[in-house]
Amino acid sequence: MSIIGSETIGTAILILLGDGVVAAVVLAKSKAENSGLIVITFGWGMAVAMAVYAVARFSGANINPAVTVGLWVNGTYKAAVVWKYFIGEMLGAMIGACLVIATYWDHFKETEDQGAKLAVFSTGPAIRNYPLNFVTEFIGTTVLVFGILTINDAHNAIPSYLWPLIVGLLVFSIGLSLGGPTGYAINPARDLGPRIVHQLLPVPGKGSSDWSYAWIPVIAPLLGGVVAALLFKAFIPKELFTTVIPPHGLVR
């Protein structure tokens, strides 16, 4: 499977399950309505794990441009393949969002809160303070990408079949600890792709797509991915680390 195809499928699974759990919790007359933040954060963690399990052997399952940028800065990927990851990640995010609309169409119609409808697709701040919102997304993504790099330290001797689950638990932890202020996008494609779908498609009763905020969950995670990779290169001696995320699969 090509990098573009693999990342498209993996990111579509991520968004279908991730945005799907948000829809289940916030949209009216869903059987999971009002089940809370724990359900959302756990659902997103498992969405990451399932997406990585699905396509890791084909492309490494970045499913996140911030991870791709971090792996490029870390030297795992050459610049020539980075654009392929970006295309697949954005396409997959938009496809996943479309599938969520199809699944919850009647619930979008029954929901009056336009903010809740937008929350299915993209993140937004609990308190709108752009500098601090940026810092929150930057910190969360730095933890994510640094965590992914350190989880793959061969000296940890983590079997490859457990790696996706552990990354999913990392995302679960980030959501619980750092997700309160902004909803923890920590993934430019996860936020931008569905936001574009919200803008373009006739979601019943939708409101604004909040483009004034949209730059934060794109730029901050990308910067966080770069900084995480630089920190990793600075503090982890090369002789103590062997990467297991090659450009075409997850292989020990």
Question: TL;DR?
Answer:
By secondary structure, the chain is mainly alpha-helical. The chain has ten helices and no strands.
Query: Quick check: average pLDDT?
Result: 92
Count the E strands.
0
Compressed to H and E, one letter per element, the order equals HHHHHHHHHH
- The total domain count is 1
CATH class: Mainly Alpha
* Range of helix content: 55-70%
Please report the distance between the alpha carbons of the first and last residues: 19 Å
Quick one: biggest sheet?
none
Number of helices: 10
Portion of residues in beta strands equals under 5%
Rg, Å, rounded: 17 Å
pLDDT below 50 for ≥5 consecutive residues: which ranges? 243-252
Summarize the structure in words:
- With 252 residues, the protein is an all-alpha fold.
- The chain has one domain: Glycerol uptake facilitator protein.
- The protein is built from 10 helices and no strands.
- The C terminus is likely disordered.
Quick tags:
single chain, mainly alpha, Glycerol uptake facilitator protein, disordered C terminus
Reconstruct the topology from this structure.
Blueprint: H1 3-26, H2 37-59, H3 65-73, H4 79-103, H5 105-110, H6 114-121, H7 130-151, H8 163-178, H9 188-200, H10 216-235
Helix pairs in contact: 1-2, 1-4, 1-6, 2-8, 3-4, 3-7, 3-10, 4-9, 7-8, 7-10, 9-10
